[in-house]
Amino acid sequence: MTVASTAAAQLVNQIFDLQRAVRCVSAANLRGDDTGVALQGVLRFVGEGETRATQLAERLGVSAPVLSRHLAELAGQGYVVRRPDPEDGRAQLIVLSPSGAEKLRSIEAQRATTLQGFLQDWSEDDVEATARNLKKLAESLWSSARAKTAGSTNTSTFVEE
Asked: Which residues of 24-40 are buried (b: 16+ CB within 10 A; e: fewer)?
């Protein structure tokens, strides 16, 4: 099925509007917090399970030096722990510390509460349908990005993370 260019352009505009709205809400909610949006993003991905720094940088779409600075700051705050990868002594594995796991739970609870307040006029069905569609969009974008990186147009190799 092919999507019309006008529909795709409208979706692009809506995505940009959503990004701006999320940034505004995030900035308002971060006043006085010790972790900014970027560090919170790193915490979220580390919270999904122990991973190598190189894989984490790739997943976040940032360079190794940028991730290294973020990890150093999070380690300094006691939120992440690094250890040598037993399979490759040159690599490091990154995992949340207990205080990092608690910080992540706190951030996610605060975000959910904030969003819940903004969605008071939405039904559960609206929220669930939006979540499904956003997930589908993200999967399509990730799948296409991976296929392009691999030099292939085959998207059947998508692995859910």
From this structure: eeeeeebeeeebeeebb
